[in-house]
Amino acid sequence: MADTCAAIVTALSATSKPVPVYIPAMSEPATPAPRTRYGRTPHGRRKVRSALALAAMELFAAQGFEATTVDQIAEAAGVGRRTFFRYFRSKEDVVFPGHDERLAEVVERLDAADPAADPMAVLGRTAEVVLEMYLAEPEVSLKRSELTREVPSLRDKEITSIDRYQRVFARYLRDRFSGQPGGDLRAAVVAAAVVAAHNHVLRQWLKSGGALDAMQMLRDALQQVAGAMSGQWGEVPAAEAGENVVVGVVRTAAPAGVVLKHLEEALRDLC
Q1: What CATH homologous superfamily does 98-228 map to?
Q2: Which of 188, 271, 192 lies closest to 233, judged by CA?
Q3: Is the pLDDT of residue 114 over 80?
Q4: pTM across the whole model
Q5: Could you give the CA distance from residue 219 to residue 36 in angstroms, rounded to a whole number?
Q6: Which of 147, 148, 171, 177 would bridge with 183, disulfide CB 3.0–4.6 Å?
């Protein structure tokens, strides 16, 4: 009997096919690709700031400044709301990216300037640094120019920004002209003249659509300012007793050269 059972088991083992067993492979969890964190480097922060500014300008142009929200700007730039507020306090600030950073750089440059250097040369190089901020991002600068013409609050903010640069320039010059006759007045006038030259060049560059060589234009303009300011600054002598001093201010459309010619002729007749 035992022999018969063994024979049956042997026969079944020989004729039966093995049943394959499939064990599903355990797939490894997908590792998400690391996100690029542009904001970790100075270059990366400028890139994010520029992207936000450009996205904002395009949205402002398309749907208006008031109708555009911070969330829309962040989404258009491909970043989150929190990232936006790491760079800007409000959507008004996004119109002027980098101004606070550049103003700090200007202050640092002037504080570190050689006390023996020509103050006009120092101020000229510093004005170039400010202009470079606009030239480095021409698309943003051109769109901002269009926007500030349409939105009064932004125009006021731009004027305030310009005034900050002028006050920094004047403070530097007051230190350089300290102790000189009329030093405070000279500092205020020169600072205003340098800023006016910078703004004039910037406006011409913007009107050209960014085609002009603004940096060379600024250097030429500052040379004219330096030439105009190279005279002696001192106390204005008081009029002697018995002299009549008359100052007239007349609004005219005549060119400056014509007005100057008439003044020279009038003074010649008086002398």
Answers
A1: Tetracycline Repressor, domain 2 (1.10.357.10)
A2: 188
A3: yes
A4: 0.65
A5: 40
A6: 177
**Topology of domain 42-91, CATH:** Arc Repressor Mutant, subunit A (1.10.10)
Residue matched to tokens 């405070």: 184
Left if phi > 0, otherwise alpha if psi is -120 to 50, otherwise beta: which for 179? left
SS3 content of the chain, % helix, strand, coil (to 5): 65, 0, 35
With 0-12 / 13-18 / 19 or more C-beta atoms within 10 angstroms meaning exposed / middle / buried, residue 114 is exposed
Amino acid at 49: R
Contact indicator for 138, 215 with CB cutoff of 8 Å: no
Asked whether the predicted pLDDT for residue 254 surpasses 60, the reply is no
Q: Answer yes or no: are the C-beta atoms of 123 and 223 closer than 8 Å.
A: no
Q: Residue 51: phi, psi to the nearest 5?
A: -60, -40
* Residue 225 vs residue 4, higher pLDDT: 225
Give the closest residue to 74 by CA, choosing from 101, 92, 51, 97: 51
Nearest to 105 by CA among 60, 164, 48, 65: 164
129: pLDDT confidence band, cut at 50, 70 and 90?
A: very high
Is residue 144 a contact partner of residue 95, using CB atoms and an 8 Å limit? yes
The radius of gyration computed from the CA coordinates of the chain, to the nearest angstrom, equals 36
What is the average pLDDT score of the chain? Answer: 79
